[in-house]
Protein backbone atom coordinates (compact mmCIF):
# COMPACT_ATOMS: atom_id res chain seq x y z
CA UNK A 1 0.00 0.00 0.00
CA UNK A 2 1.58 3.32 -1.09
CA UNK A 3 -0.67 6.39 -0.86
CA UNK A 4 1.00 9.70 -1.77
CA UNK A 5 -0.15 13.19 -0.90
CA UNK A 6 1.21 16.71 -1.32
CA UNK A 7 1.18 18.71 1.90
CA UNK A 8 -0.62 21.84 0.75
CA UNK A 9 -0.65 25.02 2.78
CA UNK A 10 -4.45 25.07 3.14
CA UNK A 11 -4.63 21.40 4.16
CA UNK A 12 -1.93 21.89 6.79
CA UNK A 13 -3.59 24.98 8.23
CA UNK A 14 -7.03 23.34 8.30
CA UNK A 15 -5.86 20.22 10.12
CA UNK A 16 -3.53 22.12 12.40
CA UNK A 17 -6.41 24.43 13.34
CA UNK A 18 -8.72 21.51 14.10
CA UNK A 19 -6.12 20.10 16.50
CA UNK A 20 -5.76 23.42 18.29
CA UNK A 21 -1.98 23.32 17.76
CA UNK A 22 -1.30 26.73 16.24
CA UNK A 23 2.45 26.69 16.86
CA UNK A 24 4.34 29.19 14.74
CA UNK A 25 6.28 26.46 12.88
CA UNK A 26 2.97 25.31 11.38
CA UNK A 27 1.16 28.59 10.69
CA UNK A 28 3.73 31.41 10.33
CA UNK A 29 6.39 31.18 7.60
CA UNK A 30 8.39 34.14 8.96
CA UNK A 31 8.62 32.69 12.47
CA UNK A 32 9.32 29.21 11.07
CA UNK A 33 12.27 30.59 9.07
CA UNK A 34 13.49 32.44 12.17
CA UNK A 35 13.47 29.08 13.99
CA UNK A 36 15.68 27.55 11.28
CA UNK A 37 13.12 25.93 8.98
CA UNK A 38 12.97 26.71 5.26
CA UNK A 39 9.37 27.87 5.76
CA UNK A 40 6.26 26.48 7.41
CA UNK A 41 6.39 22.80 8.19
CA UNK A 42 3.53 20.33 8.20
CA UNK A 43 2.00 19.49 11.56
CA UNK A 44 3.23 15.99 12.37
CA UNK A 45 -0.28 14.64 12.84
CA UNK A 46 -1.16 15.73 9.28
CA UNK A 47 1.63 13.43 8.06
CA UNK A 48 0.56 10.73 10.53
CA UNK A 49 -2.91 10.96 8.97
CA UNK A 50 -1.47 9.76 5.66
CA UNK A 51 0.23 6.89 7.50
CA UNK A 52 -3.04 5.85 9.16
CA UNK A 53 -4.86 6.05 5.81
CA UNK A 54 -2.30 3.61 4.44
CA UNK A 55 -2.84 1.27 7.40
CA UNK A 56 -6.64 1.46 7.04
CA UNK A 57 -6.41 0.49 3.39
CA UNK A 58 -4.09 -2.38 4.21
CA UNK A 59 -6.32 -3.66 7.04
CA UNK A 60 -9.61 -3.24 5.19
CA UNK A 61 -13.03 -2.45 6.67
CA UNK A 62 -12.97 -5.20 9.30
CA UNK A 63 -9.80 -3.96 11.06
CA UNK A 64 -8.80 -0.85 12.93
CA UNK A 65 -5.56 0.48 14.38
CA UNK A 66 -5.09 -0.95 17.89
CA UNK A 67 -1.60 0.45 18.55
CA UNK A 68 0.55 3.04 16.83
CA UNK A 69 4.17 3.99 17.57
CA UNK A 70 5.57 6.64 15.22
CA UNK A 71 8.79 8.63 15.17
CA UNK A 72 9.24 11.83 13.16
CA UNK A 73 12.97 12.03 12.32
CA UNK A 74 12.69 14.99 9.93
CA UNK A 75 10.24 17.83 9.26
CA UNK A 76 8.00 18.00 6.20
CA UNK A 77 8.03 21.41 4.54
CA UNK A 78 4.65 22.64 3.37
CA UNK A 79 4.61 21.97 -0.37
CA UNK A 80 6.49 18.67 -0.11
CA UNK A 81 5.00 15.37 -1.24
CA UNK A 82 4.88 12.48 1.21
CA UNK A 83 4.51 8.80 0.32
CA UNK A 84 3.41 6.31 2.98
CA UNK A 85 4.28 2.62 2.79
CA UNK A 86 2.86 -0.06 5.10
CA UNK A 87 4.28 -3.58 5.25
CA UNK A 88 2.94 -6.57 7.13
CA UNK A 89 5.58 -7.86 9.56
CA UNK A 90 3.62 -10.60 11.31
CA UNK A 91 0.14 -12.07 11.64
CA UNK A 92 -0.86 -13.60 14.95
CA UNK A 93 -4.47 -14.74 14.93
CA UNK A 94 -6.58 -11.60 14.42
CA UNK A 95 -3.63 -9.26 15.11
CA UNK A 96 -1.53 -7.87 12.25
CA UNK A 97 1.75 -6.10 13.05
CA UNK A 98 2.89 -3.60 10.41
CA UNK A 99 5.83 -1.34 9.67
CA UNK A 100 5.00 2.13 8.42
CA UNK A 101 7.43 4.44 6.63
CA UNK A 102 6.78 7.84 5.09
CA UNK A 103 9.27 9.48 2.76
CA UNK A 104 9.47 13.06 1.54
CA UNK A 105 9.72 13.62 -2.21
CA UNK A 106 11.38 10.19 -2.54
CA UNK A 107 14.38 11.60 -0.66
CA UNK A 108 14.33 10.92 3.06
CA UNK A 109 12.34 9.31 5.83
CA UNK A 110 10.01 11.65 7.72
CA UNK A 111 7.95 9.05 9.62
CA UNK A 112 8.88 5.56 10.76
CA UNK A 113 7.27 3.17 13.17
CA UNK A 114 5.00 0.23 13.76
CA UNK A 115 1.30 -0.37 14.16
CA UNK A 116 -0.93 -3.21 15.23
CA UNK A 117 -4.19 -3.79 13.42
CA UNK A 118 -7.00 -5.82 14.96
CA UNK A 119 -10.68 -6.57 14.57
CA UNK A 120 -12.88 -3.50 14.33
CA UNK A 121 -15.16 -4.85 17.04
CA UNK A 122 -14.33 -7.34 19.76
CA UNK A 123 -16.79 -10.18 20.18
CA UNK A 124 -17.72 -11.61 23.52
Can you walk through the features of this model?
Helices cover 30% and strands 37% of the residues. It has 124 residues and is of the alpha+beta class. A five-stranded antiparallel β-sheet has the order 1-3-4-5-2. The radius of gyration is 16 Å and the shape is elongated.
Order of strands, widest sheet: 1-3-4-5-2
- Provide the low-confidence segments as ranges: none
Tell me the radius of gyration. 16 Å
The helicity comes to 25-40%
Q: Class by helix and strand content?
A: alpha+beta
Instruction: Note the run of SSEs as H and E.
Output: EHHHHEEEE
Number of discrete helical segments: 4
The biggest sheet, with number of strands, parallel, antiparallel or mixed sense and barrel status, is: 5 strands, antiparallel
- Arithmetic mean pLDDT: 85
For the secondary structure, the number of strands is: 5
Report the β-strand fraction as a percent range: 35-45%
Spatial shape: elongated
N-end to C-end Cα span: 32 Å
Characterize this entry briefly.
With 124 residues, the chain is an alpha+beta fold. It has helices at residues 9-19, 24-27, 29-34, 44-59; strands at 4-6, 63-71, 81-92, 95-104, 108-119.
